[in-house]
Every structure is written in C-alpha cells, then in structure tokens.
Structure prediction request, 193 residues.
Amino acid sequence: MKLIVGLGNPGLRYAGTRHNAGRHLVEFIAKCEGLKWTRKKSLKALISQTRWKSEEMMLARPEVFMNLSGEAVSLLAAHTGVDLARDILIIMDDVALPFGRLRLRGKGSDGGHNGLKSIHQSLGTTQYPRLRIGIAPESSDKIKDLTAYVLEAFDPAQKKVWPSVLQKSFEACRLWAAGTLEAAMNTVNSNES
Prediction:
C-alpha cells in the first residue's frame, strides 16, 4: 500500500487558500478518479482508496490544522503500516518555490513549514518523501506578511493556471507510486516549467 497525504487546514475558511495546496491536490486526484471520502475519526483524517495498476493507494486529508499535521500522519502511518522511507508521500505548499514549480525529495528539513515540523516531531524522522508545490509570487517583494500570503486565496493569474499545476502534480504522484523515488525525482525535479 502507498499513502498520499495532502496537508492543509480543514474548514471552509481555508478551502481555497495557498496553504492548502496539498489538500487541493488529493481532492483533485479523488475527483479525477471518481472516489468518495470517508471520515475516520480514529485517524483524524478523511480517506479515500483506489488502485493504481497493482498498487493499493490511500489518499488522506488530515482533519487537524496544519501545525498539528503530525498527529494525523502518525496515526495514518501506523494504521496502514507503510514504510515511511518508501510508501508515504506528503504533499504541501512551499512559499520558497516559484508558483507551480514542483520539488520531490526523499528526506530533508522542514524548511520552516509548520506541517512538516509537526510531522518530523510525531514520526521522529525526516526520512520520508515529500512533494512541495510552489506558491511564491513572481516577485518576493510582493509578500509583505508571509502568514497572510499563504492563508489568502490564489490571485486571478494563479487561479487561471492552478488546474494545470494540479494535473502536473497528479502525474508526479503517479510517477512516485509506479517506480523508484530516484526515478520520479529525476523526472519531476528536472521539469522547470
């Protein structure tokens, strides 16, 4: 089994915000695959299951706030018994990457991302794959208040291209699930557009 967790904040207030990029992606995948979500209180998440070729897949949307993401991720990992270094993929926004740019890694620091910080603390490791989706504006001087920026909705220009970013991110998830992390990283990280 492979587990894909899309980070974000629950509730309508945060539904269309940049900080929910990870959550947007798993919702997009579920919609494309015609999947239904099931609330699992014991896992602090909504889950959806499918199969990609011969691989059983679980998509998850934590029902905790971003800075508590580790609570849900540790419950999901324990429930599924996935190998953290190989079979879990955490999806999140990254304000350090240009809008729409993807970065797939197998380990690393939290980079100031509160969701990752919580996951690192809960899992006790930084050795798990993560897909970062860039949300930075064209010019970094446009960010006056980082917290406000990530909790705002996409601007009109970003909204226009967001569907193609989601499609590209979905393809990155399929690459990760179908082969080795290294092969997926080589493809995803070399696509600069």
